[in-house]
Protein: Lipoprotein
Organism: Ahniella affigens
Amino acid sequence: MTVTTRVATLLIALAILTACGQDVSVQAANDPNAPAAPSTAGIPSDADVLAEMKNRIRDADSIELSREGKGEVVWSRRDLTWYYQRGYIVRRAANIEGFPDAKLEVGGLSLWVFDGNGWRYQRDLVTWNTYDGIADPDQNELIALLQNAQLNYMPVGLGSKPQNIRIAETPNFEWHNGTSVSFNYVVDAAQIDWPGQKLNQATVTLRTRVYRDTIDSPWRDPLTPEQIDAVVHSSEPKTPAELSEYSRQAAM
């Protein structure tokens, strides 16, 4: 293909997307085994995404697409597929017992998958929640609870006791009812990489759920956390026996 032909092809594609009112980018796949990205032709318009959401979500006060950013075609190494994703915001009643006027605002991504014949809706990926009409839990109380709790960190592979426990910058509080809430928190700790036979020094984002007896009672009983993210700062090779000892000591 000549440079002139290549430029003409790109201009045609841009014209098609512009005519459809689309503003779509294709992210390069950070995966050498990823297949080529599918064609952006036929990607759902903003009107299509909104229509699908409004047909599926009937109890919302409002549904709108995010004004920040734009639609993107991205490769998922976890799902081994290409997605078209479009940000949205949904507002609706929180339906939390004891807080009848509470409202919930949910931000997320509408994910569409290319199946060979075209793009179809796959699922939603919620990225944040905020509440109006119900106060966030006291962060100092939650930190003290986590520091004193005998939590099992083996499922997230910690190789040392967690240090510098703090609430995540984006806690993503999720109220299950007036006496139970989930949230993200952050720790600094050694983390075991069993497949790589390494001990990583990392900052790990975790998620747990806590309870209270009434809406005025103190929080209690955090659940075993699950990992949300990890940033590795350094790594050191270790033998399987050494890693097992780190795991044992972290559980003590």
Summary: The two ends are 65 Å apart (CA to CA).
